[in-house]
Amino acid sequence: MSETDIIARMLPVFQEVFDDDSLTITPSMSSEDIEDWDSLSNVRLIIAVERAFGVRIKASEVAQLDNVGSLADLVAQKLAAGTKA
Amino acid sequence: MTVGTAHLSWLPEAPADFTRRLKDLDRAAPDFGAALQRLAAARLNLNQATSLGRRIEARLADKGKLDPFPSLKLAILSNGTITLAAGGIQAAALRHGVATQVRCAEYELATHVALAGDPEISAFAPDLVLLALDHRGLPFDRMVAGEPVKPIVEEVIGHLRMLQDGVKRNFGVPVVFQTLATPPAALFGNFDIRLGGTWRSVISALNAAIVDLAVVEGGYLLDVSGLVERVGSENWFDEPQWLAHKVPFQLDMAPAYADYVGRLLGAVRGRSRKCLVLDLDNTLWGGAIGDEGLSGIVLGQGSADGEAFLAVQKMALALRERGVALAVCSKNDDANARQPFRSHPDMLLKEEHISVFQANWVDKATNLEAIAKTLNIGLDALVFLDDNPAERGHVRMALPMVAIPEVGADPSTYAWTIQAAGYFDAVVFSAEDKRRADQYAAEAQRVAVMSQAREMGDYLSELAMVIHFAPFDPVGRSRIAQLINKSNQFNLTSRRYTEAQVAALEGDTALYTMQVRLRDRFGDSGMIGVIVARPSDHAGEPAFDIDSWLMSCRVLGRKVEAAMLSELVEAARASGARWLIGRYLPTPKNGMVRDHYAKLGFTLAEELPSGECVWQLDLTLFSAEELPMAVERVMKAAA
């Protein structure tokens, strides 16, 4: 799955977590750009993303994310690793 | 759907367009609160619940109330990030009838706020303070395996009492104590439970002491230990999330935790339900009493289903003994419905236990209204247990404030479901409560309801029914024979045919046969109707004579009769008939179809001394009514 595909599949997750169905996301977007994106909603976001893609993201990995694109890349890596295994 | 408290499996699924529906609610509408509660009554994930909680918060912050619900302000002091569950608690509280605002103080702040006060929480002016603390937020540091339990318990209780005293001093309100879940840790294994200073022995003693503390101090209790026993401590605790974000439990469990808080707040505000309304056929016993008769229904020891229905009755009786009123709401003839209560040896429930007994053919929503009115309680005090998904769907649409648990077809889960769903939670229990069920005035009384009181049209079109017609065939044969031999109530002529005779009817090219199936968005009802007709003549003109017409009572009031008639009329016309002839042969059980043909527009041609009535329909005058369902049809293969 490409980053674009993953971001497309992430969109409804973001919309649900941030309670905004007009929300759009791009790879360069970060918590600066979404008003309700704080450390608490980030926990809900990560867990919702884990569930949507069937992956598990470690706290140390979360700490290194800086935007939507890096989250999508991380999910892509995990999906690829999962397929190989 | 997995049955279980972790999934709140008794709640109906959230609508697929939940977010849209929530957004589209009209805040200015007088029924905004009721509409919000309707959404809160569904099985929401944490994000959905958080969105809904935000709407409640905004309304309460703005207007101070959300009609028609009482309000409550809850402050939560926690050693974890309980804020993540705050919206879930608001949604769950609304599900249980309370409009709630929540403020949280977390980590080290919890102790500080309790002991030193906090201007923000004081300004919030809570009605209750929940001490949401687990074993990681209480002083267990001196716990040593093999050492006595008592000093540790005393130290923790002392700490909790100190927090409570601080809350009372600073905010002047009662606290809610939580019992503690035992973490899934073992030093030895089997031996832990008999050794002091292990989690197993200490928390077990501590929980008993917390209960005493709440009783002595007049605090409330949130039984987290009981919840975690249900869902399992290995599902409850989530070490990675705890270490990363201090999330106190696995977030998937947040809706269950929130519901436990919600039902407690409901009980605090006096919003617990008061009456359990029971369907009869396939809810209190197996099978249809009107069709199978007293000896045919399944109830009692010796079969899995029979014992499951006994368990439902036992649960209902136990609830009655603690003050919950019981009522009956069933589509049946009153006399048939009462028969098991009077003379079935395995029935635990008797007529004297039932405060209002509504068995008739009027829609269930109307009967539930009559029950609430008779008991002088609100519709929001009713819980309705019914095995039939279409009935549940109908009542939910008409009366969203009635609590209706989702149950599957297997009765073994029914008793559990009613007890797990927290409808009847309480914060006190007095001698008077015990007598309450008796005080619900007249027993087993029946209340008149207006027939056809409810506008059914919208409901039927929302059901998205699909009716399926086919001639008799080998696949349907045994079910056709079963319907022909078992249907007693909706059966115009009660002619019985064996399976071999049904096979012969299949092959008879002179005959017209019809088997009818029905499905809708709530499920597949399977085969529910049968017609056998043969060409004949009527006063010298070609006619179609209906030999048998029978239907399952489960699909009454769904326009199935009208659809079957349209289908039959087309076949009759195609064969060149001018008349359709129907007969009603009265039996002790089929009184409900006495006027069947009159309702469909037939006129009475003849009444014989035997009581047999012959009805005729002029096919040149008949025009089919519009049907609230899609039609599928299989044509008879050419002979």
- Helix- and strand-based class of chain A? mainly alpha
Query: Main β-sheet of chain B: number of strands, strand sense, barrel status?
Result: 8 strands, mixed
Taking the alpha carbons of the first and last residues of chain A, their distance comes to 16 Å
> Level of helix content of chain A?
55-70%
Oligomer state equals heterodimer
**Please, how many helices of chain B?**
24
Rg from alpha-carbon coordinates of chain A: 12 Å
Q: Round the Cα radius of gyration of chain B to an integer and report it.
A: 30 Å
Largest sheet of chain A: none
Overall form of chain A: globular
Most extensive interface, chain pair and sizes:
A-B, 14 and 19 residues
Q: Total helix count of chain A? A: 4
Helix/strand/pairing class of chain B, anyone?
Answer: alpha/beta
The total count of strands of chain A amounts to 0
Q: Low-confidence runs of chain A (pLDDT<50, min 5 residues)? A: none
Beta fraction of chain B = 15-25%
The average pLDDT score of chain A comes to 87
Q: In what order do the strands lie side by side in the largest sheet of chain B?
A: 15-16-14-13-12-11-10-17
Task: Give the terminus-to-terminus CA distance of chain B.
Answer: 46 Å
The average pLDDT value of chain B, as a whole number, equals 91
Number of strands of chain B: 17
